[in-house]
Amino acid sequence: MPIWGWIIIAVVGLLIIMTIGIYNGLIKLRVRVDEAWSDITVQLKRRADLIPNLIETVKGYAKHEKGVFEEVTKARAAIMSAAKEGPAAAAKAENQFEGALKSLFAVAENYPDLKANQNFMQLQGEITDTEDKIQASRRFYNGGVRDLNTKIQTFPSNIFASIFGFKQREFFEVEDRAAIEEAPKVSF
């Protein structure tokens, strides 16, 4: 076989190895993003499961705050269904849920006996722990999305990503940027 035949075989072999490597890299990143999204939904469910217990504890002290309880319950249901729709819907529901939860904790501030209740304090601690886990899960998810989207957009993997039908993913972004950029007000 002439040298040109060996060169063509080598180039074709190199292209096949490169294609397999790029494809497997894209698959690994896609699986990592899917795993990270699953972590977020698990933590959202954990938090949603804690909320009815928190509401029942607060109800015992603040019977006339029915509107707050209904708002938290609606927000809880919305976040569980939004998580199935993707990051944008989940982020929007997350913002509503956080507002409702803040209202619930504001109600608790008006009841010193409730704030001292061991069950309430334990639930509040578990929710805080879950919030930290949700935040960590979001960072992990967004890191995976960044890596996947970068690989999909860079040459030569963008060619193979297009051929194999890989799509960019959405970041899990907070909707209310003004609230983030505004410094918190602290008064003593």
Tell me about this structure:
With 188 residues, this protein is mostly helical. Helices cover 80% and strands 0% of the residues. It is built from 7 helices and no strands. Helix 1 runs antiparallel to helix 5 (118-153), helix 1 packs across helix 6 (157-164) and helix 2 packs antiparallel against helix 3 (87-109). The model is unreliable at 183-188 (pLDDT under 50).
Features:
mainly alpha, 188 residues, 7 helices, 0% strand, rod-shaped
Nutshell version of this structure?
By secondary structure, the protein is mostly helical. The protein contains seven helices and no strands.
How would you summarize the topology of this molecule?
Blueprint: H1 3-59, H2 66-82, H3 87-109, H4 112-116, H5 118-153, H6 157-164, H7 177-181
- Distance separating the two termini: 87 Å
Structural class: mainly alpha
Mean pLDDT: 84
The helix fraction, in percent, is over 70%
Low-confidence stretches: 183-188
Query: Looking at the structure, what is the overall shape?
Result: rod-shaped
Instruction: Classify the beta-strand content into a percent band.
Output: under 5%
Strand element count: 0
Oligomeric nature of the chains: single chain
Biggest β-sheet: count, sense, barrel?
Answer: none
Treating each run of at least 4 consecutive H or I residues as one helix, how many helices? 7
Radius of gyration (CA) equals 24 Å
User: What are the secondary-structure elements, in order, as H or E?
Assistant: HHHHHHH
